[in-house]
Amino acid sequence: MRIVIHGQQAFGRAVLEKLLARDAADEQIIAVCTAPEQPGKADDPLKALALEHDLPVHQPASWKTPEALALMQSFNADVCMMAYVLLFVPEAVLNAPRLGSFQYHPSLLPMHRGPSSINWPIAMGATETGLSIFWPNDGLDEGPILLQKTCAIGPDETLGDVYFNKLFPLGVDAMLESLDLVKAGDAPRIAQDLTAGSYESWFGKAQAEVDWTQPAQTVYNIIRAANPQPGAWTTHAGARLSIFDSELIADGGGAGAGKPGEVLTVDDNGITVAAVDGAIRIKRVRADAGKIPAAEYAAAGNLKPGEQLG
After folding, report:
1. Count of CB atoms situated within 10 Å of the CB of 301
2. I need a surface site. Which of 167, 215, 245, 303 has the fewest CB within 10 A?
3. How many whole angstroms separate alpha carbon 207 and alpha carbon 222?
4. Residues near 133 by Cβ (< 8 Å), separated by ≥ 6?
5. What is the SS3 assignment for 198?
């Protein structure tokens, strides 16, 4: 089985590591493809591992050129494993390997197609998500499903928790499981019902702004969905204040009713801020000094109960 690994960053590296550890006699990694680095940046982790093992590395700036198609065809590959690919790859390139290309996507397709598929379920208050290994086409995460795995979203879990503790390791294993299905000739191609799914664009800074007039649970979901990236935020004294670790206080922490965005208490545990039908205790923020405990930020800025955020 002649295999191309196409990916980047820690996930792409982890898939390559696991594939190398198998040391299967019927598997040959013939090429590693990854995105070009930005000027001045270190080598991508996947590229670095490939070079350690003397594997040929290719870094087209675009896969939409005749040269890129010719490159993929030149590998004479049986299959391409796409482990975290952000560049668009046209169907002609995807279909160049004898058995095609399969790709990792961190949601239960057809739900949450798009680039921020981990953030959105958390922001929407979902209690379950998962991953899909699918056969990509020219649509946006629309190709047939090969394999799926589910996982719970805990009530206090953040984007980082769900990805690094669940979707990352599950996804690495699912990529290798999918390869075994392809090798055995048992890999499904289950068409997606796109009418039963959703597409969301980037969960960026605009989506991560805290609206204190929303229910406390909604605010908490946004903060969790943005931790660690892109970071939820509000304003204090006209300056942006990024919020990371936090806690939902369903009854307002016993601090009494407050207007949305009003600071109710400031203590060693953090800054408690009113929302609708509850409050949020902010535990860690990012200010000029970087990420610091919220209590430290409050002391430095002389923030007191009664002040307004947002």
Report:
1. 14
2. 215
3. 8
4. 102, 103, 104, 105, 145, 146, 147, 148, 174, 175, 178
5. coil
